[in-house]
């Protein structure tokens, strides 16, 4: 099993979710995060106060998948979230030691396989 | 009337002074009410900003509110310089003259508009009418939010207030041919709502859809703002309709009362329709109902009885309710339903005025239901003329502006949000990651460009 963590643009989220559902990847968590990935800072002005906004709004997706699902998941995210500009985000794939499904007590691959 | 014209003939050199000699004196009660009404109507424009601002996504909230706020300045000044003169001074059947441009001859003497002398100072009449022009321009913005670039928008509403609003206001109120034919429009069913609603429809068609339209649900980011905006609109609308009597009298009282009753009826019927259709009544629906009811009663407010205002408000629910439901299924991105709310509500109200008007109440004439069939057809003509003029004028104006500068923001900027790309501000920011820029030291290093640029 792997944990796929993806950080994408908020405006790309809908496309990413759509692509993931099409790739039959179910079961994910998202959170709103702020981050900096080398994109041009935007400058904002509030009366006399001018600031460089170093952090941009991003969305972080966490998806636990069985091994053979890693590739389709990553491909779906890359395809949907890419604009070609700095700031499109990152995908991290990490090993997972154990997974438990709380409701049933199922473990590992069984726990990340969606109930149909 | 004849008497007045003679004065006008002899008194051209003296301007409005000639009228003043013939006019009744300024009435303190009338003037007080019109001063209050003017402030009430002015408040409606930021109220529209909140009404619309709540309906868009949070990344576009400021831009949407700014579209209304900017109209206060740009359209307001344009009105004083030239718009008011073109709309309300004596001229042809279609357009006024420039005799009141730069507020020349607009003084403290009683206002004389299209042969009628009012008991309020001319400057107050000008200011009152300015607030109407401002809100009409601001209403259009609901059709093109979340994608129109701000500078072309400013150019658009400024020129629109001169080229489209002023002629229609003149035709109906300023001594033009629709007013002379006897079209009933107490406070702006044709001039304000049909005009803005049709202009919105055309603008939405010219600009095209938002990038996410039809692909993902675009939900209101703050429904409480929508309700706040609708509530402030209702409050301001008492000045809009009540003030259109241009006096503090029984007619103003009638319009005021109808402004209370009609939207209340719309609210009830809309809520029932909501419950019958989905089992739940919605807050967005309630706010929309209030606005639709206000729009519909606007042309009728000083012409129908209070009981008929309830009937009118109830009937007016249906066309707007179902047009708004239908619109969401089409590929027309009239984002905040300016057409369904204002054009459809305005047409319904204007036609029902021709049916429900009663001379006992308005002292002017009856409608179809009370034996004057002709009035209905005059109303229909006024609807047709204002629709056609607004549609053609708005289309040509947007095409001309669009030939000089793109009307629509690039897809990338739309994705990032109009607040950051158009205004360099955010509606909701906590300052995390914001680094103070000291202008003296850091200027050479700052790229004053928004994210999503070309690098």
Describe this structure in words.
The complex is a heterodimer of chains A (116) and B (455). By secondary structure, chain A is α+β, with helices and mostly antiparallel strands. Chain A has one domain: Alpha-Beta Plaits, CATH 3.30.70.120. Chain A has three helices and six strands. In chain A, strands 2-5-1-6 form a four-stranded antiparallel sheet, with helices on one face. A two-stranded antiparallel sheet of chain A has the order 3-4. Chain A is elongated and about 60 Å long. The model of chain A has no long low-confidence stretch (mean pLDDT 91). Chain B starts with a helix and ends in a 13-residue tail after the last helix. Chain B has one domain: Ammonium transporter fold (Orthogonal Bundle). In chain B, β1 (110-113) and β2 (116-121) form a beta hairpin. Chain B is globular and about 65 Å long. Chain B has 18 helices and three strands. Chain B is mainly alpha-helical. In chain B, strands 1-2 form a two-stranded antiparallel ribbon. Chains A and B meet through β3 and β4 of A and α16 and β3 of B. β4 of chain A pairs antiparallel with β3 (434-436) of chain B.
């Amino acid at each position: 099993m792997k944990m796929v963590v993806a950080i994408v643009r908020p405006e790309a989220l809908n496309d990413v979710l759509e692509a993931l559902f099409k790739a039959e990847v179910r079961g994910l968590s998202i959170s709103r995060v702020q981050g900096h990935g080398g994109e041009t800072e935007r400058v904002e002005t509030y009366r006399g106060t001018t600031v460089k906004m170093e952090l941009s709004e991003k969305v972080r997706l966490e998806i636990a998948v069985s091994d053979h699902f890693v590739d389709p998941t990553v491909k779906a995210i890359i395809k949907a979230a890419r604009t070609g500009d700095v700031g499109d985000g990152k995908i991290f794939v990490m090993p997972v030691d154990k997974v438990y499904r709380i409701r049933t007590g199922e473990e590992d691959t069984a726990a990340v396989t969606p109930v149909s | 009337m004849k008497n007045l014209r003679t004065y006008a003939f002899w008194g051209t050199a003296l301007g409005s002074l000639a009228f003043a000699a013939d006019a009744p004196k300024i009435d303190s009660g009338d003037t007080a009410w019109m001063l209050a009404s003017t402030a009430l109507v002015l408040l409606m424009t930021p109220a529209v900003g909140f009404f619309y601002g709540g309906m868009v996504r949070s990344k576009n909230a400021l831009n949407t509110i700014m579209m209304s706020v900017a109209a206060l300045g740009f359209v307001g000044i344009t009105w004083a310089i030239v718009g008011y003169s073109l709309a309300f001074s004596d001229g042809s059947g279609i357009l006024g003259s420039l005799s009141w441009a730069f507020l020349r001859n607009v003084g403290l003497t009683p206002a004389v508009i299209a042969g009628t002398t009012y008991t309020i100072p001319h400057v107050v009449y000008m200011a009152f009418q300015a607030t109407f022009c401002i809100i009409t321009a601001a209403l259009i913005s609901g059709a093109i939010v979340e994608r129109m670039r701000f500078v072309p928008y400013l150019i658009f509403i400024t020129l629109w207030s001169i080229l489209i609003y002023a002629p229609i206001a003149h035709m109906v109120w300023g001594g033009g041919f629709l007013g002379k034919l006897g079209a009933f429009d107490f406070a702006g069913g044709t001039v304000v709502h049909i005009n803005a609603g049709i202009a919105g429809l055309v603008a939405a068609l010219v600009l095209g859809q938002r990038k996410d339209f039809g692909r993902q649900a675009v939900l209101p980011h703050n429904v409480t703002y929508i309700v706040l905006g609708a509530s402030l609109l209702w409050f301001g609308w008492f000045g809009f309709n009540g003030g259109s009597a241009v006096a503090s009298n029984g007619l103003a009282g009638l319009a005021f009362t109808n402004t209370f009753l009609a939207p209340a009826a719309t609210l009830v019927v809309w809520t029932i329709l909501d419950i019958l259709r989905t089992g739940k009544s919605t807050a967005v629906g309630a706010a929309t109902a209030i606005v639709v009811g206000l729009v519909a009663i606007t042309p009728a407010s000083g012409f129908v009885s209070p009981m008929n205002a309830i009937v009118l408000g109830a009937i007016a629910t249906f066309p707007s309710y179902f047009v708004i439901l239908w619109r969401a299924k089409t590929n027309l991105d009239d984002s905040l339903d300016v057409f369904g709310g204002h054009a459809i509500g305005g047409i319904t109200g204007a036609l029902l005025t021709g049916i429900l008007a009663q001379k006992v109440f308005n002292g002017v004439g009856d409608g179809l239901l009370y034996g004057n069939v002709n009035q209905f057809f005059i109303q229909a003509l006024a609807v047709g003329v204002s629709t056609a003029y607004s549609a053609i004028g708005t289309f040509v104006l947007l095409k001309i502006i669009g030939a000089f500068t793109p009307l629509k923001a690039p897809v990338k900027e739309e994705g990032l949000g109009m607040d950051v790309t158009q205004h360099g501000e955010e509606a909701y920011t906590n300052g995390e990651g914001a680094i103070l820029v000291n202008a003296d030291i850091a200027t050479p290093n700052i790229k004053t460009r928004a994210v999503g640029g070309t690098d």
